[in-house]
Input
Amino acid sequence: MARDHYEVLGVARDADAAEIKRAYRRLARDSHPDANPDDARAEERFKAVSAAYTVLSDPQRRLHYDRFGDDSSPAGAPGDPFGGFGDLFETFFGGGFGTGGRRRGPIPGENLETVVELQFEDAVFGCEREITVHTAVACIECEATGASQGSSAQNCQTCQGVGQVQRVRQSLLGQVVTSTACPTCSGRGETIADPCVSCKGEGRVVEEQTLTVQVRAGVDEGTTLRLTGRGAVGPRGGPTGDLYVHIRVHGHAFLTRHGFDLVHRMEIPVTQAALGVASDYETLDGAETLEIPRGTVTGDVFRFRGRGVPHVEGRGRGDLLIEVVVATPTELDEESEELLRSLAASRGEEVAPPGEGLMSRIWSALS
Output
């Protein structure tokens, strides 16, 4: 058995049109499937609210329903050929539906933007961040209606509640009719004679709010997170905008990111490159043993699999790549130079005589 439409909207049977409309807007926003992604029954509740409003917002259909308890469109009544979806579009998309005299409806709230700065490791592994934004929230004093206690919004007398005014002008082709937003009510279709003192008729006030943002592992510099419905609330119960969080990532001391791989161009002394070495290497996950084999040359790459950046949209991680750069000693004491000369001699390799470096030869040529 279908539920009573008045019960669905939570209003008395003698509720006026303004009360019914306020109840519908509040319940439609609260029960909309987009606002309740984890609630399987949200769509069912939303449909019931929309169906109830379709009947009770139409004077003829409401009268028929009150008399017979049947919500079908009475004979001769035009009804709503779109099953109430005109008001649905009005509530959630802030624009008129069709050209049959619908008002523009609630104005959506503004989208907001902010920037969150992350340390390199936080971007790799994910984190929670608290952010503070100045945003518009629903006025508690007037319950977002914009009207003071005991009063309510009234149909605009200029546009008769349509939200638009038409102007007729003559042209060579005859009369041309243009429609523009009503200048009296700014296209809302309603005016408030006694506005709320707290919000001055806006139905919202500006406050500083602190929000917790979940940053997924693997985000990169320039990523933008969209938090649906976390922006500014619209005037007089209008839909809420979105919050866009732009990610900025600080650099690492020696790691650079290439996609989901991490790269470290690591200098090692020529002795380790020639003779090999095994040493502890500090990855972002902890210490690992890095083995450099004998005869390593500049450009050799060693890989730690699965020690890179997690994939944002799936399982697995990139790799950590160690690219070796063999460092040539540039300042030698006398003992070290002798050792190198002995090594060169034993290998039959020709080297410059002592004091015959490049700068020394240039100086000799100029003197």
Remarks:
- The longest strand covers residues 127-138.
- The chain is about 25% helix and 25% strand.
- Residues 75-103 have pLDDT under 50 and may be disordered.
